[in-house]
Design goal:
The chain is mainly α. The protein has a domain at 15-70. The protein contains three helices and no strands. It has helices at residues 15-27, 38-45, 49-59. Helix 2 crosses helix 3. The protein is elongated and about 45 Å long. The protein starts with 14 loop residues before the first helix and ends in a 32-residue tail after the last helix.
Length: 91
Amino acid sequence: MCDDPRPGVPRKITDADVERAIVKTLEETPKNATHWSTRSMAAATGMPQSTVSRIWRALAPDPHRPQTFKRAGTASASRPRSRSLCRSSAQ
């Protein structure tokens, strides 16, 4: 189902960019703060703030509670939660 062509402009954010943002969210903390905000993560990754917000909404990592995020390999993490993250970056 994810392989169907979709209308619109192809994605500019790759799966590697999404993974980098999630790993940074879960494994690092910003300087002078206890958890990431969308703006601080956007500045650290070079992505727009709205993109970071969409990634967090789709994958729900809760940057202030990283222990609640389910990593790949768990039942709920194995299915995509957002169609927008399902598109291939090679379109």
